[in-house]
Amino acid sequence: MRLDARIPSGPIEKAWDECRFEMKLVSPANKRKYNIIVVGSGLAGASASATLGELGYNVKCFFFQDSPRRAHSIAAQGGINAAKNYQNDGDSVFRLFYDTIKGGDFRAREANVYRLAQISLNIIDQCVAQGVPFAREYGGLLANRSFGGAQVSRTFYARGQTGQQLLLGAYQALMRQVAGGQVKIFPRTEMLDLIVIGGKARGITTRNLITGKIESHVADAVVLATGGYGNVFYLATYAKGSNCTAIWRAYKRGAGFANPCFAQIHPTCIPVTGEYQSKLTLMSESLRNDGRIWVPLKKGDKRPPNEIPEQERDYYLERMYPAFGNLAPRDIASRAAKRVCDEGRGVGATGLGVYLDLTDAIRRVGRQTIMERYGNLFDMYKLITAEDPYEVPMRIYPAIHYTMGGLWVDYRLMSTIPGLFVIGEANFSDHGANRLGASALMQGLADGYFILPYTIGDYLAGATLEKVDADHPTCREIEQNVQITIKQLLSINGKRTVNSFHRELGKMLWEHCGMSRNAEGLQYALAKIPEMREEFWRNVKVPGSGEQLNQSLERALRVADFFELAELIVLDALERNESCGGHFREEYQTPEGEALRDDENYSHVAVWEYQGLDRRPLLHKEPLQFQYVLPSQRSYK
Amino acid sequence: MNLTLYIWRQKNPNDSGRMVRYEVRNVNPDMSFLEMLDVLNEDLTLKGEEPVAFDHDCREGICGMCGAMVNGVAHGPVAGVTLCQLHMRNFKDGDAIYIEPWRARAFPVIKDLVVDRSAFDRIIQAGGFISISAGSAPDANSIPIPKQIVERAMDAAACIGCGACVAACPNASASLFVGAKISHLGLLPQGQPERDRRALAMVEAMGQELFGSCTNVGACEAVCPKGIKLEVIARMNRDFLLASLRHRPETQTAGVG
Fold first, then answer.
1. Annotated catalytic, A345?
2. Which of A84, A242, A414, A588 is the most exposed place for a label (fewest CB within 10 A)?
3. Is residue A169 over pLDDT 60?
C-alpha cells in the first residue's frame, strides 16, 4: 500500500488554489457521460450529490433510511464554525486553522485543515443563500456564539437545530437535482460491498431493504459518505442505524483505515439509566457557555444539589483549567468528568454523572433569556429524565459521539483504492485526535460542496476506465458472497439476539478502549473480541427471511462488521503508545494527569491494510509535518 | 409495570393485516416507547416469532423517521414529542395500548408499523427549494433579514417530515407539511424569486400524491411534535391564490444568442 497524500508544495495559503489549477477539468459536454455513486445522504453525501448533479454528472445516491433528510447530520445541535470574523473579535482563517490543528492534538494534516478553514467562508454564504435560517441580531445580520474550545465567536447556529437546518438545505438542493433528473435516489437501500475491477472502485453491491433484492450498481467513481462508526460502542449519540459496513467492506477490499482508535467522547450527554437503554442523548455543549459544571467536594455526598452549599462544591473545570473553564475542549472535559466520578464524587443513582448547573446564568440574565437560548434543550432533558432543569441542575456524563478515525484519504479525498472517494465523518482527514465543537458540519459541507466536486473531476479526466456493466463476473461473484453471508446468518438459529451481542461488544470496548485505555485492558479486549465474534456466528438468532423487510437481519449484518472493526480499533489503540486527544493511554500522562504526546515516535497517521480475517493487518505510517503550527503541549489552563 | 399491547401486524403491502395482542412485563417507567418495543421484540425473537417492524433512527426526536398511532393519537398522548421521546412514565400499570401505523392513502403500509412516505420527498422535489448552485452565493451578510422574520421562518423550518399531521387529519391532508415549507422559504428574501412558482408546484404535487384537502380541522397542529402552527396553511393558501392570479405561462423563447 502506497500512501501518497498528494499535498501541494509551496505556501499553505496558496496550496488549494494551486491544486485546483493543476487539476484536470472535465468539459461540460463530457460530464454527462460519467456516472458517480454516492453512498449516504447526510451533510457530506447530500451536498456532494447535489453539487455533482449541478455540475452535470449522472449521480446515484443510496441511503438506508426512507428519505435523505433522515441522515444523522440532522441531529447536530450546536452550530457550524466559519472564520468570517463578523464579530470583529480577532478571528481569521489562520486562527481557525490554528485552533483546529491544536484542538486535534497535532495529529491532523496541516494542508487539509488550512483548506477547511478557507472554505468555511463559502459554506456560510452557500447555506444562507439556500434559505438556512441562521440566528440573527436585531440589525438583521448573522449572530455568532463561541463554542467548546474556542475563544472567539465564530459559530453560526439555528437555535439548537443547526444540523437539521443545514441538512434540509442540502436535502432541498438534492431534491432539486432529483427533479431535474441529474440525481437518482435509492431509499431504503444498503451498501453491502464495494466492487473493485481492474484495481479501481467501479460500483457497489446493495440490498433493497424492502424486497431483500441484492443488486450491483456500476459507475466510474464511488463516493462513501456513510458517517462514523461510533455505534461499535453500542451506546452512543449516533442514530440507531449508523454503521460501519460501507467503510469496513471498502477496507476489506483494500482501502487503508486510518487512526481507528480516535473516537470522540462528548462530555455533555444524559447519563445511562438502565440495561434496556438503546442510545444516549446529547445535550448541546453550547450549554457550557452559560452552565457551570460541578460535583460535591466530598465523596459519596448524596444530598440533593440544592442543599449542597457553594463552599462544598467543586467546580472542577474552572479549578483545573482557569483560562478555558467550563469551555475546555471535549476530550479534556470528558476525562475530567471521568476522573471526579472515579474518585467517588459522581452524582445520580449510578454515581456516573456530574452537574451542569445554569442557576447562576438564570440569575444573571433571567429565565426568559435562558429559555430563548436553550429552551428546546431543557424541554428535551425534561422529557427524558422527568427533571426540570430550571429547578434542578442537569446531570450529564460523557458518551461516544464522533469518530475522527476513518478511511485514509489523500488531499484530494481519494482513498488508497483509485476511484473510491471518502468524505465527511467517514474519512479520517481533518480533526486529528480530537474534533472541536461545530467543526463536523463544517467538514461535511466543505467536502461535499467545495472539495470533492473538483477533485473527482480530476480523477475522471485522467483515468482510463474500461467499460463495465452489472453483469461483470466480479459483480456476480460479490452478489453471491453477499447472499451466502445472509443465508448463513439466517440459518444459525442460535439462542441470543443480535442486540445482546452488540451490547456485550459495546461494553467491552467502552471499558477497555473508552475514555482511558491501558495496555493490559487492550490486550484483554484483543483476546476476547474474537471469542465473542466466534460466538456470534455460532449462536445468534436472526428471525424471518432475506426476501422481505427484516430489521433483525439488517442489524445482524451491521453487527457482524462491528465485531471485526472493534478488533482493529483495539489493535490501533494498543499500537499507539502515547496519549493524544481522545486517545488517552494511562501509561502516558503528565504528573497532573494530562495527556502526554510522543511526537518523536507517533507524529503520524496510522494506516491499516487488511490481510485477511485472522491475520494481523499491516501498519503503514503517513508522517505528519508541522511547518505553521509547531507542536506544543495543549494547555487550556 | 405490566401492559397489554394491541399491535397492527401486516406482513407486506398486500396482506390485509390485523391487531395482535401482546403482554409485556416489567416495563421500566424511564424507558422510551421505542425501547419498550425493543424489549418486546427481543422476547418475540427468542420465542421464534417475528419481531414488530417499526421505523426509527435518531431516537432523539429530530430525524422524523419514527411514528405510530398510539391509542388513536399520532405519536401518543404527550403533546409536542415524537414517539421515540415518549416515555413509559406517561402510562399506568395495567394499561392497554393500541399501536397502529399512519393511515393515509398516500402513505401505504410496507410492513407492520412501517409506511412509505416518499410522497413527501416528491412534494419537495416539485419546488421545496431555492435554486442556487454551489459556488454562486453572495456574502452571507449581504442581505440583512429582520430577526422576527428569520425566527418565523425557523418556526416553520422546524418541521421534521414525520407525517403525523397527515395521519391525524380526517382528510389525510399534507397541508401542514407543505405550508411549513412554503412559509419557511417564502418568508426569507432568498426565497422570493421562486415564491409563486413554489406555491403552485407544491400544492399541485400534494394533490397528485392523493393527499386530501384542508378543511381547517386543526388535528395536524395538535399532534405536530415540532409545534408547527396552522397559520402556515393560511400562508400556503394565500401564496397559492396570489400566485394563481399572477400566473403567466413561462416564456418559451429564452436564451437569445
1. no
2. A588
3. yes
